[in-house]
Write a structure and sequence with these properties.
- The complex is a heterodimer of chains A (214) and B (423).
- Chain A is of the alpha/beta class and 214 residues long.
- Chain A folds into two domains: 2-81, Orthogonal Bundle (Methyltransferase, Methionine Synthase (B12-binding Domains), Chain A, domain 1), CATH 1.10.1240; 91-213, 3-Layer(aba) Sandwich (Rossmann fold).
- Chain A is 61% helix and 14% strand.
- Chain A is built from nine helices and five strands.
- Chain A has helices at residues 2-14, 17-29, 34-54, 60-81, 104-115, 129-139, 151-166, 184-190, 199-213, and strands at 91-97, 119-127, 143-147, 174-178, 194-196.
- The model of chain A has no long low-confidence stretch (mean pLDDT 94).
- Chain B has 423 residues and is α/β, with parallel strands linked by helices.
- Chain B is 47% helix and 7% strand.
- Chain B contains 18 helices and nine strands.
- In chain B, the strands form three sheets. A four-stranded parallel sheet of chain B has the order 1-9-8-7. In chain B, strands 4-5-6 form a three-stranded parallel sheet.
- In chain B, α1 (12-19) crosses α2 (29-38).
- The model of chain B is unreliable at 1-10 (pLDDT under 50).
- Classes of the chains: A alpha/beta (214), B alpha/beta (423).
- The interface between A and B is large, with 34 and 41 residues.
């Protein structure tokens, strides 16, 4: 069985989503615990892709395909892990602000955060401030991640933070932001708790923020 | 050294000659810039297609700004005259027009630039490609406003067509993850898609621009193929052949259609800066420039990258007495965040490094919406001071200060005699 798990890990590194799905199913049918599949094959696969990105061996297309393969494998194991006691680092909800449809960065961030053990809920793109508020109230995340990819929609982040403040929710969670036009300075200006330059930064920031929450 | 290679079409001297004797018309901000352009001293040019900043600064609703060519061009011309740019081209959401005309669903909002709805791509399955028809360009989407924009730009001495590069257009109608998967798993379909976009869609679009706007050249941005969105190897395989194909197609009706900005080196992490990859990116750019010796220092962190490797690459031209073109951009986030002295230092460094042996143009692209105008004034003043021709031997001896300027609204009030921008 370790052969199947090795192949699965490699499929995620290689970004082969179809094969990742097939091998995850094969591992489950062979009786491997879903949590072991995640821990020994799926997560190491996405971590390896991140390492290759860091080392300038992988570029965006490679990482996107790895994230897709990760997502495909996770979808297969998801029904088997629901209800099981799994150690989660914390709950994060992520979304892209209103008027903005770019979700490439978010998809990679989600894969990396899940790989790092966070429970991640994706709100999607084009999310109005009111929806962020509603979801924060409903899901009570430890961290809210907000993305934007245009300089005009970047200004919407201020609106989300203002709305959180007005609804008395700002101090109930930590906020991290990201996206092409954002910077640490902008994060400071709007009062976010952290800024991620890329998915690796986002994971590091989330780990630090969760320490402060707990 | 012979100045035999620069594209002089939009150079200050050309627009200066064209605009000599222009009469200021308070109702027409195009003339504000044209009058300014006619009396500029000789300096290294600086230009800034800055739609988002213009829309934000003026408060014009996005739905109007990106759909009405006159509003767009007049606003950008007024802004170009105010800041002192050497180019005043109207520019909209350049990547979206063709996709929208083909039927791609768009998202419009009050304050943001229109954007394609990536949740609902035009090509969901490879079979969808066969269903796409070449648009009736004169009646599709916002194409008429694009044609108006091209004509208004030409009135200011800046002719030229606009289009979206095949790769970026493919992303807009397919989404990036699906397209990347196609390149890996279904290359035949990817080839069919790019061929269709180059041969059918973009060739007919540019032919229509030729017929209705009289263009002889057109340029396309291609940010989706910038590095690391695409590796140089993938760009060689999936960008260059279709750009070449389009170029050849358009020569049949005497239009030079050039894809610019592909393989723009945009590594975000300075510790990952890699000279070998940068050179590979330049090699791809060289192929796309069809013989023009040039390098593009685009959206990357050029305020942090070393410039020596660029000189090393450019030596192939300098050693052969060829004066190459260097298009160097001030990073958009640096421009927004400042501080001013960091912006000024970058401009000075670019001019000192490239201003003497190369045809340098400084560009501010994608200027963030809420960029403080003082940061833009700082950048322009630095170019106008340090870039005054002939360049001083030692730029450290050049006195520099940022002139105090009135706010844009006050400038408009003064120039228009209280009328404003007229819309």
């Amino acid at each position: 069985m370790s052969d199947t798990l090795d192949k699965l890990r490699q499929c995620i590194v290689d970004g082969d989503d179809d094969m990742a799905t097939a091998l995850t199913e094969e591992a489950l049918q062979s009786g491997v615990d879903a949590r072991d599949i995640v821990k020994t094959a799926i997560v190491p696969g996405i971590e390896q892709a991140g390492k290759l990105w860091q080392d300038n061996i992988y570029f965006m297309p490679d990482v996107v395909l790895s994230a897709e393969a990760f997502k495909a494998a996770m979808q297969v194991v998801k029904p088997y892990t629901q209800g099981l006691k799994t150690a989660s680092r914390g709950k994060i909800i992520l979304g892209v602000v209103a008027g903005d449809m770019h979700d490439l960065g978010k998809s990679i961030v989600i894969a990396m955060l899940m790989g790092a053990g966070f429970d991640v809920i994706d709100l999607g793109v084009d999310i109005p401030a009111a929806t962020f508020i509603e979801k924060v109230k409903e899901l009570k995340p430890d961290i809210l991640g907000i993305g934007c990819y245009m300089t005009t929609t970047m200004l919407e982040l201020k609106e989300v933070l203002r709305a959180l403040e007005e609804n008395g929710l700002r101090n109930t969670l930590k906020i991290m932001i990201g996206g092409v036009p954002t910077t640490q300075q902008f994060a400071d200006e709007i009062g976010a708790d952290a800024w991620g330059r890329d998915a690796l930064d986002a994971v590091a920031a989330a780990k630090q923020l969760i320490e402060k929450v707990r | 050294m012979e100045n035999n290679t620069a594209d002089k079409k939009n150079s200050p001297s050309v627009t200066q000659d064209m605009n000599k004797g222009i009469q200021l018309n308070p109702h027409d901000p195009k003339t504000w810039w044209m009058a300014y352009a006619a009396q500029r001293p000789a300096w290294i040019p600086i230009m800034a297609p800055m739609a988002e900043h213009a829309q934000f600064l003026t408060g014009i609703p996005a739905r109007q700004f990106y759909a009405d060519a006159k509003i767009n061009v007049h606003t950008l011309a007024a802004l170009a005259a105010y800041y002192g740019f050497d180019n005043a081209m109207g520019v909209g959401d350049t990547y979206n027009y063709e996709a929208e005309a083909m039927g791609q669903k768009m998202i419009y909002s009050e304050n943001a630039m229109p954007t394609v709805d990536s949740r609902d791509p035009l090509i969901k399955q490879p079979e969808d490609l066969k269903k796409i028809k070449v648009p009736d360009w004169l009646h599709a989407g916002r194409i008429r406003s694009v044609f108006d924009l091209i004509r208004l730009n030409a009135e200011m001495g800046m002719p030229g067509g606009k289009f979206c590069a095949p790769f970026s257009l493919a992303v807009n109608i397919r989404t990036y993850p699906l397209l990347i998967k196609d390149l890996r798993k279904n290359p035949e379909f990817a080839h069919d898609l790019f061929t269709f976009l180059a041969d059918e869609i973009l060739t007919s679009y540019l032919k229509c621009q030729k017929e209705h706007c009289g263009i002889t050249a057109a340029t396309a941005p291609d940010a989706w193929s910038a590095f690391p969105n695409l590796s140089p190897d993938l760009a060689e395989k999936w960008v260059v052949p279709y750009a070449e194909r389009l170029f050849k197609n358009c020569l049949n009706f005497d239009v030079k259609a050039v894809v610019a900005g592909s393989c723009d080196y945009c590594e975000e992490r300075i510790e990952k800066f890699d000279k070998a990859i940068l050179f590979r990116c330049f090699d791809v750019q060289k192929k796309l420039a069809f013989g023009m010796p040039m390098v593009i220092l685009g959206m990357g962190r050029w305020h942090e990258y070393p410039l020596e490797p660029v000189l090393e690459y450019l030596a192939q031209y300098k050693n052969n007495n060829i004066r190459a073109v260097v298009m160097a951009q001030i990073n958009a986030r640096l421009l927004r965040d400042g501080p001013e002295n960091r912006i000024i230092d970058l401009v000075k460094r670019l001019i000192d490094t490239f201003g003497r042996d190369y045809n340098l143009t400084v560009i501010m692209s994608n200027v963030p919406a809420d960029t403080p105008p003082r940061h833009i004034h700082a950048a322009v003043s630095a170019v106008h001071t340090y870039g005054r021709l002939p360049l001083a031997e030692n730029l450290d001896t050049v006195a520099f200060h940022i002139p105090e300027r009135e706010p844009f609204q006050e400038y408009v009030h003064k120039m228009s005699g209280g009328i404003g921008l007229g819309f």
